[in-house]
């Protein structure tokens, strides 16, 4: 969700003299919510139907909030593995719980990449946080663009790695591409003699995807790390809860490096409650969003000024306008319908990314899109 904006550290101040050079060069995070935080928010790929669970109503102190929380969230890990049907192959030793998957991304860089020496490989257009975390940790980023259809260029990607490449990030389904990467591609990367680092498969949108999670590959491929989150399908972006699943050696290192009490008791409680609502809430909400995704895509395809609607394996759609994408984004957002302009990303010229909302939100988005384009082109 985060990307860069202009640095604002005063050159006369003490901080400027003392800070690490790579941190000074860094720009503060910037996300769509910096500019627009109200209206119909279809910019951050959340689940606008709402959360899969709420905190337990309590007049007693059932969570013992005066005490530090469980540092390893064993109950939550067991329940998560059950939810993923992975309890027979994996144990809590294969699971890290973090403050969103963003915490896991940062920890992996801190664990595996020596600042100023090692590098990561990313495949643009992709999630912005890999680059941001790399900059914070003074880690070089090697980019190998996806194909225009958003496939991984396996040979080129492997060829771009070197002895200092520690992490290769594959976002599946991709953001902003919405495209799931087949297991065969992940296996090709994981088994190649050309690359000895980890393959990090970011599955933030996996619950919307027809391609199954690569969790099933973990017992055969100890060099794969899978990232997942409750921020998307579970509708729980506000509690900040993400997961990394991998070989116990990786998880042990993550536990060694994380802050001792990274997960607070309230988040853990809501996460456990949510995993009790899979059939009656999660699956129903995902189905609703998938149906709405079809409606939005069909309507977009009917518009003559929309030149491309990319296939979607996620809860958002990437589409291209004939022209004016940035202006359309801005006018719509100023008018209260917030999407994400992606036209600066590779292969995404004149593209907008829209998260799937509730029916009335999607209808309003489609109506405003037509009105705005017509006004701008008249
Ligand atoms: C691909 C991808 N990975 C990870 C995240 C962040 O997830 P979390 O909220 O768990 O930090 C996002 C959020 O937009 C995302 O798009």
Please render the helix and strand layout as text:
Elements: E1 3-4, H1 14-18, H2 21-24, E2 29-30, H3 32-35, E3 40-41, H4 74-83, E4 95-98, H5 100-112, E5 119-122, H6 129-136, E6 140-143, H7 154-160, E7 165-171, H8 183-191, E8 198-202, E9 224-229, E10 242-245, H9 248-257, H10 265-275, H11 278-302, E11 306-309, E12 316-321, H12 325-334, E13 337-338, E14 340-341, E15 351-355, H13 359-377
Parallel strand pairs: 3-13, 5-6, 5-7, 7-8, 8-9
Antiparallel strand pairs: 1-2, 4-10, 9-10, 11-12, 12-15, 14-15
The protein binds pyridoxal-5'-phosphate (PLP).
Pyridoxal-5'-phosphate binds at residues 1, 45, 100-102, 127, 171, 175, 202, 204, 229, 231, 237, 242.
Question: What can you tell me about this protein's structure?
Answer:
GO terms for molecular function: histidinol-phosphate transaminase activity; pyridoxal phosphate binding. By secondary structure, this protein is an alpha/beta fold. 36% of the residues lie in helices and 16% in strands. The strands form four sheets. The protein has a seven-stranded mixed β-sheet with strand order 4-10-9-8-7-5-6, sandwiched between helices. It has a four-stranded antiparallel β-sheet with strand order 11-12-15-14, with helices on one face. Strands 1-2 form a two-stranded antiparallel ribbon. Helix 4 packs parallel to helix 10 (265-275) and helix 12 packs across helix 13 (359-377). It is globular. The chain starts with a strand and ends with a helix. The model has no long low-confidence stretch (mean pLDDT 95). The site of pyridoxal-5'-phosphate has 14 residues, from helix 5.
């Amino acid at each position: 969700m985060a990307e860069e904006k202009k640095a604002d550290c005063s050159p006369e101040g003490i901080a400027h003299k003392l800070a690490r050079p790579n941190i000074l060069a860094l720009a503060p995070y910037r996300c769509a919510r910096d500019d627009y935080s109200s209206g119909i928010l279809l910019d951050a790929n959340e689940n606008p139907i709402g959360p899969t669970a709420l905190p337990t109503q309590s007049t007693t102190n059932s969570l013992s909030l005066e005490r530090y929380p469980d540092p390893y969230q064993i109950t939550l890990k067991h329940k998560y593995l059950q939810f993923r049907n992975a309890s027979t192959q994996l144990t809590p030793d294969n699971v890290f719980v973090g403050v969103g998957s963003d915490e896991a991304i940062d920890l992996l860089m801190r664990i595996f990449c020596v600042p100023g020496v090692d590098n990561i490989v990313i495949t643009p257009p992709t999630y912005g946080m890999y680059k941001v975390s790399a900059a914070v940790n003074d880690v070089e980023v090697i980019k190998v663009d996806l194909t225009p259809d958003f496939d991984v260029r396996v040979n080129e990607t492997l060829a771009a790695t070197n002895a200092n490449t520690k992490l290769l990030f594959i976002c599946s389904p991709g953001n902003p591409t919405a495209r799931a990467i087949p297991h065969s591609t992940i296996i090709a990367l994981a088994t190649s003699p050309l690359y000895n680092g980890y393959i990090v498969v970011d599955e933030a949108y996996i619950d919307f995807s027809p391609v199954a999670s690569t969790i099933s590959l973990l017992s055969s491929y100890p060099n794969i790390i899978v990232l997942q989150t409750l921020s998307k399908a579970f509708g729980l972006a506000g509690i900040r809860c993400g997961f990394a699943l991998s070989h116990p050696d990786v998880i042990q290192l993550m536990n060694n490096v994380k802050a001792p009490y990274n997960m607070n008791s309230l988040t853990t409680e809501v996460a456990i409650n949510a995993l009790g609502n899979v059939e009656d809430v999660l699956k129903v909400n995902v189905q609703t969003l998938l149906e709405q995704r079809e409606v939005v895509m069909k309507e977009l395809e009917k518009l003559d000024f929309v030149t491309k609607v990319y296939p979607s394996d996620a809860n958002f759609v990437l589409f291209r306008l004939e022209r004016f994408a940035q202006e359309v984004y801005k006018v719509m957002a100023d008018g209260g319908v917030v999407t994400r302009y992606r036209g600066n990303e590779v292969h995404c010229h004149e593209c907008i990314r829209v998260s799937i909302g509730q029916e009335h939100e999607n209808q309003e988005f489609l109506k405003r899109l037509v009105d705005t384009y017509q006004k701008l082109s008249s």
